[in-house]
Give the backbone structure.
Amino acid sequence: MKRRLCFCLLALQCLAGSAFAADALQKNKSESNSVKVETLMKTTQSWDGVDYGPYPTGRPELSILKIEIPPNTTLPWHTHPMPNAAYVVRGSLTVETQSGQKLMLSEGDTLPETVDTVHRGTSGSEAVELIVFYAGVKGQPLNGPGH
């Protein structure tokens, strides 16, 4: 009888220990599945240091574009009439203003674009993939010609 009681107590202790370990494992697993937030960019200025002005009036229109630029390609000079931001998914890109300011970007970098400043981008030896978010108003073009 004593032997049976010892066995039952030992089994109970093992089960309790297993339950505790399983609970700890589940807790650790749920922590690894938790939502993670990383701010990639938060700014009131474009990359060249110019403060963003007020938004134009009108109904907001948001656009998100995936842009792929072939290797060794220089885009034409252009402008953007509204704030926009780019995320470099892959490749490298050099952005330059017509006045000669340059910024080099690579995979994982963000770009707070210029507004109403003539600029262009040039890809490196690999294709560039960008995700670009535009915050404009309904009917407003996303870009305009360089001057």
In short: The chain has two domains: 1-36, 60-145. Residues 1-36 form one domain.
